[in-house]
Here is the input.
Amino acid sequence: MEAEDAFSMDLMGPSTEDRANGAALLSAGLVREAGALAQAAAGLRATLDLADQDLPRDEARRAAAMAAALLVIARQLRAHAADASRAAEASIAALSGMALALPEISAHLRAAALMPISDDGAARIAAGVVAETFWNALRAAWPAAPGA
Here is the structure.
């Protein structure tokens, strides 16, 4: 009977350790995304002398704000690796004062989940599960966030 219970538990999805590894992979992917955005923001700021319009300034600010948001989300995913829904709630609380577009967060979350830097297949699968759980919780709670 114990062997049957162990077998059925394996069918329930990624293990706790796989989820923790998946959350770490997803978090690392978000940090990479944030780094790319911060680099883009710096590049846009460096070209401000070449443009007379405010568009580059606005884009630089948006890129920098999204980079900061992704770092906050990555931190919350690491802090709450066992519970992606709790990480989403904590992220919303931390991001409450920022004007962010939910679709932009989704795009970066997907990119981070699709480009994990690991040969651990279970952790890569778990990163997708964590990303989906996090996204669903974030999307469900987003309208209730202050300033949304």
Notes: Confidence is low (pLDDT under 50) at residues 5-9.
